[in-house]
Automatic annotation (TrEMBL):
Any one GO cellular component localisation term in the record: nucleus
Domain PpiC: 59-174
Protein name: Peptidyl-prolyl cis-trans isomerase
GO molecular function term, any single one: peptidyl-prolyl cis-trans isomerase activity
SMART domains the record matches: WW (SM00456)
Residue intervals of the WW domain: 6-34
Length: 174
């Protein structure tokens, strides 16, 4: 595969590198399919990948979905479902524990159940995408969320994670 049209750029919104094809105007968080670490290290902008130029952006990022339940002490106690959330943190945790039990009971189709519940119940605008937050790197999410997401293996779900936004279940998808 030819590397001549590809370069690595820095995302202004996320502050992480991405791959851009000047000919097709296609961009991707992931390295172009079929590129070796050697080819990636030769791309213009490879210094943006950090101290090891052969390291791909995918190795410094994760992809995750989440199911958020806000409570009255959340930093913004409102959502697309409810403009004034008054439940306590304890009540939010109980609700999330119920969702966690439903997801765990789904067996091999737990990821589908997670997306279904996130679409219907999450207090985050990511509900529109089944809770999918896309790829993100270190420093882009609240620390407890980031630590939990990076600690998960792909295809596994966290326990309840508390942040200033509320309480979450996190599913690592990439």
């Amino acid at each position: 595969m030819s590397t001549e049209d590809w370069e690595i750029r820095m995302s202004n919104s996320r502050g992480v590198p991405y791959f851009f094809n000047n000919a097709s105007k296609v961009s991707s968080w992931d390295p172009p399919v079929g590129f070796t670490d050697e080819q990636i290290s030769q791309l213009p902008g490879n210094h943006l990948l950090g101290p090891d130029p052969a390291r791909s952006a995918a190795q410094t990022q994760v992809r995750a979905s989440h199911l958020l339940v806000k409570h009255r002490d959340s930093r913004r106690p409102a959502s697309w479902k409810d403009s004034n959330i008054i439940r306590t943190k304890e009540e939010a945790i109980e609700i999330l524990q119920g969702y966690e039990a439903e997801i765990n009971a789904a067996g091999d189709s737990f990821a589908d159940k997670f997306a279904e519940l996130a679409t219907r119940e999450s207090d985050c605008s990511s509900h529109e995408k089944g809770g999918d937050l896309g790829r993100f790197g270190r420093g882009q999410m609240q620390k407890p969320f980031e630590d939990a997401a990076f600690a998960l293996e792909v295809g596994t779900m966290s326990g309840i994670v508390t942040t200033d936004s509320g309480v979450h279940l996190i599913l690592r998808t990439g």
